[in-house]
Amino acid sequence: MTSTRKNLVLSSAFLVLGLAITWETFDYGAKSAVFLRGLAVALSLMALSYLAINLLRRQHHNSDQPDTSSRPSWLANHGNALLIFGVVGGYVALMQIVGFLLSTMLFGYLTQLAIARRHRLLHVVYTVLMSAAIYLIFFKLLGIAAPESLLSLDQTLKFL
Amino acid sequence: MFEAMSLGLATAFQPAMLLAVLVGVTAGVFIGMLPGLTSTMGVALLIPVTFSFPPAVGLSLLGGIYLASTFSGSISAILLNIPGTPSAVATCQDGFPMTQQGKAGRAIGLSVYASSLGGIFSTLVLLFMAPALSELSLMLGAPEYFLLALFGVTIIASLSEGDMLKSMMGGVLGLIISLVGMHPMTGEMRLTFGLPALYDGIPLVISLIGLYSIPEVISMLNADGKAEQETRSSFTGALSSLRDVVAQKVNLIRSSIIGTIVGIVPGAGSSIASFIAYDSAKRASRQPQMFGKGSEEGLIAAESANNAVTGGSLVPLLTLGVPGNPVTAVLMGGLIIHGLAPGPALFENTPDIAYGFIFSLVLSNLIFIPIGLLVAKYCVKVILLPREILATTILALAIIGAFALRGQVGDVLMMLGIGIVGYLFTVFSVSRAPMVLGLVLGAMAESNLSRALMLVRGDTGELILQFLTRPFSIGLVLLCLLSIYLGFRKGKVAKPTAQ
Question: How many domains in chain B?
Fold first, then answer.
């Protein structure tokens, strides 16, 4: 995607967001809405100006050639991002089912495997060490309560 | 007064005090480095440890944690572009580019020395000028706090890299996100979409973890890395950077003064101070175009200001018994637990403890130089880890850090949501710093505007009159106007150059 086209997409997204929030603020009382509405209107106006600037820029320079390469390379460009969003989302879901220790181990190993398939034994060892270190520092030393899950910690330890 | 000070000096050099400072600083360095663990959390977690200690020793330990964790947030900011604490966000702007240029050691060195000198400056202000300055903090009301937040917002233009309008939209989005949740005065829920997890808003720390760690991991995976890793892991020039920090005395003193003053103002905080100091340094610099690309001036300004906040924030606490930020509120709890009443009586009844504590802060500021450099020297090797291990570790720490803040799994999803926004910002080349500034300032601006409006019974004309008649308000209004003017002038100057 060329920079002007990116800017057009960005300004359109900000414009939609600004208008949606402005609309939403009419559901709130005047005192609660005043500052938020001001910001939403400002965002909409800025987005509108930016959209106009980029439309004019595109018209004047006419430099936006059709980007034929963007479609095939989209997954290559954003594949890693999708992977990270997926593993974090999966980790959170898993944490609430099998508990912290097991989910962290699965998350640690599978994430490393997804990024690079070398040194598998090292990945296993590192996963165990990392999970244990995080567990000891956060939940034992600092006394933070572990996330609630269907499988309790005792059950997990018995399973392991 | 000098007799009391000498008593405090003698107390500060007792072996137990020195040991407490050492332990506190070491713990603080590790706490500040981990994203999600803030200074407040570190001090709160270790208060129970100090129960059995003499009051001065316990307070020194807590003070050491406060100072060192404020500094050490910069270690992960410089090495990984992930601020360990909110106060280190401005440090990312130039610290990480320096690491990319193979100057990690120098960046850490500059950060350590600037933090130490900024901290010492503000502690000396606390020592000699606390009573006078505490009166200043009482003269500020809701209109001034609102204008201070507004002044912070005007800095967005200066922080913008490239397209100013794009950065300003990012800043406004940050302001809007900071308003999610309950209205501070009316209690009405806004932008929560019926989700209970959003009722208390999106905590700043969670936003920062998401905004910086997720995009950074993705860019780490996208980068083709071994040569870059080797460059980034270089750790030279740390020790020799003291001379360069001292050489920038004007920048250092200006930033330390900004940090101290912002620290005195209740509710403002170190992230605001570091952004204001960064902006001032950029405006005063002969090479403003280097800011955001590895400018040493920018790094020194941000770091000296955020540590100068520590001494400033203790002024209202120790002299008036008014905690100005969450850390000092927790410290106040520590004082009370040890049977001490913060306020003027603290200096009259227990001068050895009060002055001993202040001198121990000076010692903490000195001790974190070797400890910070030593820890950073080994931390820099982390960059050499295989990227799958490094990425997994960062993600795991980000997730646990987000969870640890309030013990809610929903916070991790919030962190992921903000992370996606952060990633989209990098895809669309929008600078993240203005959004952070918006996140920091939004709630402060709104709550103080509401309070100010309430004081004038909703009469906007009366409020404007107050802005133009109260002495501090006039100064802040002029500063806002000057900042906007300079921002637009910068935009006008930048355009022909770009063309």
Answer: 1
| pLDDT-derived band at B160, boundaries 50, 70, 90 | low
With an 8 Å Cβ cutoff, is A53 touching chain B? Answer: yes
Domains of chain A, by residue range, sit at 3-61, 80-159
Mutate to test the interface with A, among B150, B382, B388, B393 (most CBs of A within 10 A): B388
d(CA B114, CA B100): 21
Q: Please classify residue A58 by burial: count the beta carbons closer than 10 Å to its beta carbon, then call 0-12 exposed, 13-18 middle and 19+ buried.
A: middle
**Start-to-end CA span in chain B (Å):** 62
Of B183, B221, B446, the CB nearest to A115: B221
Contact B111, B299 (CB under 8 A): yes
Q: What is the end-to-end Cα distance of chain A in Å, rounded?
A: 48
What's the domain range around B85? 2-498
Min Cα separation A158/chain B (Å):
23
pLDDT in tens, B324-354: 777 887 888 888 878 887 777 777 788 888 8
Which residues of B fall within a CB distance of 8 Å from A89?
413, 416
Residue B439 to residue B189: CA distance in whole angstroms:
18
What ipTM did this prediction achieve?
Answer: 0.87
Residue B498 — very low, low, confident or very high, per pLDDT cuts 50/70/90? Answer: very low
Residue B497 banded pLDDT, cuts 50, 70, 90: very low
Write out the two tokens for B82: 């992930």
